[in-house]
Backbone:
């Protein structure tokens, strides 16, 4: 599966990058935020949910904390094994932030 | 603990009498509630029991505070009407301690005289799923789609980070659960009552790659309530309210999540309200996961960094204080937002000598905390309130 790249917010006044979506810039309080591509990030940690509270979710769910080069920390679902320190790209499939299968180069 | 305020004991901020906690009540906690049991019914049961415990009639109550996730579509005014309360002060917030602090201010400014603060939920697995899936917009938009429903994923990350930072093994977290198990055996709402060995803790099923079954609170249906009154009307058995501190969204979710904000709160309590960890008898620490208990002990000054290895090996010490004497949420269960009043009721029972088999000798001073409300990666609200037994 390969979806569109994840978009985050960029403050038009001060340039701060924000994710998840905010109502105003947390640095300068501007309401003028524009969508920009999230760009690359690095996996900081990975955890597996083994007993998900949702019956709709099958099997272990692997969630990664990804620090974007632009700053924000993002929770993303990993579709394959991924280790801390791995450089990744993120995609957005109907709201689900996924680690792109194109990712995987080591940093 | 009257601190440096310069006010006379028993006097509130603007010359009105200080507010005190006159009474508390806790319903039975039910793991499998009857189909007919509703959140409103549980809240009414706790509120009316606390009002009676305070020696009041419902018509004497003029203030209502509510902490609940599942009272909806009813709001506090609907609950007031359906319970027969006529009021002149009302508010709600999921964090019970913040409601109690506001109720205290209402009494001390003359806006109310007798306030009942009640919190609870008829929580079970399907309601929990529903509640946590719609917890806030960010959860709906960004956590549910990746399968991170409920807070286990976030606390799995926090526990892993904490474990690595302090070089701990699972037994450090097991010590928290083991201690609270022993306490829960003495409490009427203790759900897990059997003694727990660290081996049993380690062998329990994994819920995430980091968390075991006993790291997670069981869901229960139940409610807690306290009644606040003017000190000059409440009688000698009332519990005095000391310093309060809180932080909300203190780091914009940009930190590692392991800085809960209790270091800042602890500093406020020490410097402005005379808080002394070594003179605390009861520590009601919000305990949705063991890692949060340990992190609070450290930030509040009960567990110095150099004591970590000894702690992990020997178990629970927090100076002279007993942590979560009821067994806490981990061993009694969490009744939704009512969990934010569980520790308060626990402490009030101890300070009033009403704790039954679990009564601690000479319990005079307590600190009660709340923590939670996950925005995205971790909780964003922390609050603490000092209590002292009446004369």
Residues:
């Amino acid at each position: 599966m390969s979806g569109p790249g994840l978009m985050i917010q960029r403050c038009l006044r001060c340039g701060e990058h924000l994710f998840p979506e905010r109502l105003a810039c947390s640095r300068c309080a501007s309401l003028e935020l524009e969508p920009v591509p999230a760009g690359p990030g690095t996996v900081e940690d990975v955890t597996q949910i083994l007993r998900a509270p949702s019956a709709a979710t099958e099997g272990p769910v692997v969630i990664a904390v990804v620090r974007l080069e632009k700053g924000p920390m993002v929770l993303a679902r990993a579709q394959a094994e991924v280790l801390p320190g791995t450089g990744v790209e993120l995609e957005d499939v109907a709201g689900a932030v996924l680690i792109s299968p194109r990712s995987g180069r080591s940093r | 603990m009257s601190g440096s305020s310069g006010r006379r004991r028993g006097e509130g901020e603007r010359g009105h009498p200080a507010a005190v906690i006159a009474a508390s009540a806790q319903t039975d906690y039910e793991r499998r509630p009857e189909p007919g049991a509703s959140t409103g019914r549980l809240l009414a049961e706790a509120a009316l029991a606390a009002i009676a415990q305070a020696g009041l009639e419902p018509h004497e109550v003029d203030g209502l505070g509510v902490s609940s996730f599942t009272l909806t579509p009813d709001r506090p005014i609907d609950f007031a009407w359906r319970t027969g309360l006529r009021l002149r002060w009302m508010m709600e917030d999921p964090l019970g301690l913040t409601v109690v602090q506001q109720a205290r201010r209402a009494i001390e400014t003359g806006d109310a005289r007798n306030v009942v603060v009640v919190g609870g939920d008829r929580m079970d697995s399907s309601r929990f799923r529903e509640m946590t899936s719609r917890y806030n917009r960010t959860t709906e938009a960004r956590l549910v789609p990746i399968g991170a429903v409920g807070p286990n994923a976030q606390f799995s990350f926090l526990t892993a980070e904490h474990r690595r930072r302090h070089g701990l093994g699972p037994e450090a977290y097991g010590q928290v659960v083991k201690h609270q198990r022993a306490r829960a055996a003495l409490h009427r709402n203790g759900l897990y009552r059997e003694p727990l060995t660290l081996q049993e803790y380690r062998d329990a099923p994994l819920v995430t790659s980091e968390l075991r079954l006993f790291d997670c609170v069981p869901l229960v249906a139940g409610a807690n309530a306290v009644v606040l009154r003017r000190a000059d009307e409440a009688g000698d058995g009332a519990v005095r309210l000391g310093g309060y501190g809180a932080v909300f969204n203190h780091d914009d979710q940009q930190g590692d999540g392991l800085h809960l904000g209790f270091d800042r709160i602890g500093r406020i309590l020490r410097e402005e309200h005379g808080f002394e960890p070594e003179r605390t008898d009861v520590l009601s620490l919000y305990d949705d996961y063991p890692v949060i208990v340990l992190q609070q002990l450290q930030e509040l000054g009960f567990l110095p960094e150099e004591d970590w290895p000894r702690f992990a090996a020997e178990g629970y010490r927090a100076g002279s204080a007993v942590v979560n004497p009821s067994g806490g949420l981990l061993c009694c269960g969490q009744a939704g937002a009512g969990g934010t009043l569980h520790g308060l009721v626990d402490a009030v029972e101890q300070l009033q000598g009403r704790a039954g088999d679990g009564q601690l000798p000479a319990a005079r001073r307590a600190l009660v905390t709340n923590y939670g409300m996950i925005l995205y990666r971790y909780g964003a609200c922390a609050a603490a309130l000092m209590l002292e037994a009446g004369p």
